[in-house]
Inverse folding.
């Protein structure tokens, strides 16, 4: 079991990452709270030794992805909310970012995951394939199709 | 689009309230987990105690299985002794029924011996062997519930008696022996006492206790009016022992029985 201080540092370091992954998957604040608790409690109780910060971050991402997947599978999950119900900060987003995020969040989950991990977290297709338990070529296909869908939704811009 | 996406995603931050509620949750959970771990540590002696209790029970149970006598072998010459035999046919107790018996047992350690070995040891001891050689009579009884063990023990003691000569073997039920013990007699002497008391009502268990089996048999034979035959009787005994024919099943038993009836 990790010390309280260690867990506090990890929460500061990875809270934003977990929050973004929650946004991609859940769009629901109450479920987001559940995921935060699950992920950081697992971290606190885990005895895994991380070789580097990158390794630790990858662990957090993988645990968050799995926790979100489990929550989505849960038959008791009935709390879903539309994107614009995104709390507090939703209104504070610049117009351009808000539009883009809405376009991303309107994509099917498999595209959202690939887009976030590739474009924001900067993982290679091979790493994303390992995280999502998918074939590398499938990841390439997902990214390609997501890009086309986003371009189409945003009015034909395509430069990535 | 790459940069725009990075910027857009970068604007998403974990709310302070969310971080704070997570912190609070983790503090509660982790202190609870620590308390549980401490409780588990404190509770650990319980399984250890349970294991110890099981071991103790197993040991006690094993001890009970070994040390509980399931049959008794009663040996009467004049020394009268009783050997408690466990379910594994080993001697778990040796009790003297009279002073001669005490003296006999003082000179030997029969505990944990196999029944056959213990009976042989007694019959071949100087005290008993000399008595038998001089015409003494040994009565060896197997006392216990009717069953395979008593049958087996009877065969064993018959075999020992055949080797020693001058011994008569019989089998009796435990209930019958209780009456003998009440009078302070071994079962072999009790049987003789009953026979004697039927012929001489003045005979007491105390008198019988101090008499050897040979003396008892002679007394009974005398009371049966076989003084003449008594010489023959003792001679018969002598023949029995000397020739060895008597070990035969019943060589001696047959001798007594016949004497008794005639």
């Amino acid at each position: 079991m990790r010390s309280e201080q260690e867990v506090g540092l990890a929460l500061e370091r990875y809270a934003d990452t977990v929050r973004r992954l929650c946004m991609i998957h859940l769009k629901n604040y109450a479920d987001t709270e559940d995921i935060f608790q699950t992920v950081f409690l697992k971290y606190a109780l885990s005895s895994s030794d991380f070789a580097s910060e990158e390794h630790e971050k990858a662990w957090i991402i993988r645990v968050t992805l799995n926790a979100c997947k489990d929550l989505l599978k849960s038959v008791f999950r009935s709390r879903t909310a539309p994107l614009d119900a995104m709390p507090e900060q939703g209104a504070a987003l610049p117009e351009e970012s808000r539009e883009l995020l809405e376009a991303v969040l309107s994509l099917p989950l498999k595209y959202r995951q690939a887009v976030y991990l590739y474009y924001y977290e900067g993982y290679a297709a091979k790493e994303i394939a390992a995280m999502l338990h998918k074939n590398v070529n499938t990841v390439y296909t997902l990214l390609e199709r997501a890009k086309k869908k986003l371009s189409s939704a945003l009015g034909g811009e395509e430069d990535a | 689009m790459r940069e725009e996406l990075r910027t857009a995603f970068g604007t998403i931050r974990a709310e302070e309230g969310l971080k704070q509620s997570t912190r609070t949750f983790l503090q509660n959970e982790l202190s609870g987990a620590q308390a549980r771990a401490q409780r588990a540590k404190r509770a650990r002696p319980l399984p250890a105690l349970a294991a110890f209790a099981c071991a103790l029970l197993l040991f006690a149970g094993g001890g009970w299985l070994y040390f509980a006598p399931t049959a008794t072998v009663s040996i009467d010459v004049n020394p009268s002794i009783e050997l408690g035999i466990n379910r594994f046919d080993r001697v778990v107790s040796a009790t003297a029924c009279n002073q001669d018996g005490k003296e006999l047992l003082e000179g030997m350690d029969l505990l944990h011996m196999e029944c056959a070995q213990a009976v042989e040891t007694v019959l071949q001891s100087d005290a008993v062997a000399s008595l038998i050689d001089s015409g003494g009579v040994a009565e060896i009884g197997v006392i216990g519930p009717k069953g395979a063990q008593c049958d087996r023990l009877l065969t064993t003691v018959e075999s020992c008696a055949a080797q020693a000569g001058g011994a008569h073997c019989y089998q009796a039920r435990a209930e019958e022996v209780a009456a003998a013990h009440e009078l302070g007699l071994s079962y072999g002497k009790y049987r003789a006492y009953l026979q004697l008391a039927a012929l001489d009502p003045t005979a007491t268990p105390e008198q019988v206790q101090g008499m050897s089996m040979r003396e008892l048999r002679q007394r009974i034979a005398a009371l049966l009016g076989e003084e003449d035959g008594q010489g023959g009787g003792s001679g018969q005994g002598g023949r029995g022992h000397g020739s060895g024919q008597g070990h035969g099943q019943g060589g001696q038993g047959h001798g007594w029985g016949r004497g008794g009836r005639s």
